[in-house]
Amino acid sequence: MNIMDFNVKKLAADAGTFLSRAVQFTEEKLGQAEKTELDAHLENLLSKAECTKIWTEKIMKQTEVLLQPNPNARIEEFVYEKLDRKAPSRVNNPELLGQYMIDAGTEFGPGTAYGNALIKCGETQKRIGTADRELIQTAALNFLTPLRNFIEGDYKTIAKERKLLQNKRLDLDAAKTRLKKAKTAETKSSSEQEVRITQSEFDRQAEITRLLLEGISSTHAHHLRCLNDFVEAQMTYYAQCYQYMLDLQKQLGSFPSNYLCNNNHNAGTPMPSALPNVIGSSAMASTSGLVITSPNISDLKESSGSRKARVLYDYDAANSTELSLLADEVITVFSIIGMDSDWLMGERGNQKGKVPITYLELLN
User: How high is the pLDDT of residue 303?
Assistant: First the structure.
């Protein structure tokens, strides 16, 4: 027998097997043929593997969206990965914002309050950008890569063996069908031999598939460790960002009068010296320089009396209608009907003028 004859016979045998499986599958769907059911344990393992695959893909894709919200950038990284090439380094959004702030602060003048503040904010934004880059790298290595390896490696092997098990089952059921239809002793004997062979092949493949599927529990344990690594990376990132912003807030809150001087008091409303602490801690709020209007001040504005108040910060009067203040001095304050809600009238000896309430602490 030459090679060509062997190949022709093999192709004919493969075509016959494929046709036999197709007929068996169609008759099963139409309810015209019996189907060998897998045992309950194997069915549960198959279901668990499929569920793991579906949710792993969803978690992996959404994590990629979280780490890189730009879909064009994700596509570019995917292409470079498939080409086995390193994607070019790009400036992320915090780094870009930080650079703009630094450039603007340099243009306005580092010696001015606004220019100095912009430079400080820009440097902090760039540090956040670096932390963001480190989070992406750590999450990709310790979380996304193991999940992707499961989808593209272990599960592909499981799917391949599962498909082979399905074919072995179809072969077995087709052999059983032929045995039922056998009429002669010779045909019946041949069909019985075929059933024994296909049954043995099916059982062996079922065992191979079962052993692979039982590894899903180990996969879950591994993914749990990867999840812990991802959470730790996020925790480190958010802790860094919080510390960076806390340090920045303290820097910006260290010179409130400079902000006011830089703006030349053109706005009629006094500015607080720093942003309120987003965490809500009263201790941190006190370091930020922000003073929340107390109920005592509200009571004072609704009455016609006067009260003593301690000045919290230096304040330079913008014009002759305002009163300059020195930190820690005590003045008399009172309200005038129709006055802006952010101001009170202040009095020191023979001097009198408007004062911003955010710079005052009423005394009992």
Answer: 55
Q: Return the H-helix or E-strand segment holding 343.
A: strand 343-348
Q: Kindly list the distances between the CA atom of residue 274 and the CA atoms of 257, 284, 286, in Å, as whole numbers in the listed order.
A: 11, 11, 10
Amino acid making up residue 129: G
Closest CA to 66 of 145, 135, 141: 135
- Give the H/E segment covering residue 255: none
**Which amino acid appears at position 360 of this protein?**
L
Q: What pTM does this model have?
A: 0.62
Q: Where would I find the beta strands (DSSP E) of 262-305? A: none
Low-confidence residues of the chain: pLDDT under 50: 256-295
- Which is it for the CA torsion 247, 253, 258, 261, positive or negative? positive
User: What is the C-alpha separation between 207 and 197, in angstroms, rounded?
Assistant: 16
Secondary structure (3-state) at 297:
helix
pLDDT, residue 293, reads 44
Query: Please, what's the b/e burial string for 62-75 (b: 16 or more CB within 10 A of its CB; e: otherwise)?
Result: ebbeebbeeeeeee
Rounded CA separation 66/70 (Å)? 9
Instruction: Return the closest-CA partner of residue 260 out of 121, 114, 120.
Output: 114
- The span from the CA of 153 to the CA of 79, in Å, is 19
pLDDT of the residue at 137 = 92
Is residue 359 within 8 Å of 291, Cβ to Cβ?
yes
Of 65, 82, 83, 86, the closest CA to residue 74 belongs to 65
Closest CA relative to residue 120, chosen from 106, 132, 134: 106
Rounded distance between C-alpha atoms, residue 20 and residue 174, angstroms: 7
Backbone φ, ψ for residue 290 (5° rounding): -90, 130
For the CA atoms of 176, 181, 187, 190, the dihedral, rounded to the nearest 10 degrees, stands at 0
Q: What is the pLDDT of residue 10?
A: 60
Q: What is the predicted pLDDT for the residue at 31?
A: 73
Q: Cα torsion for 214, 220, 222, 224, to the nearest 10°?
A: -160
* pLDDT value of position 276: 38
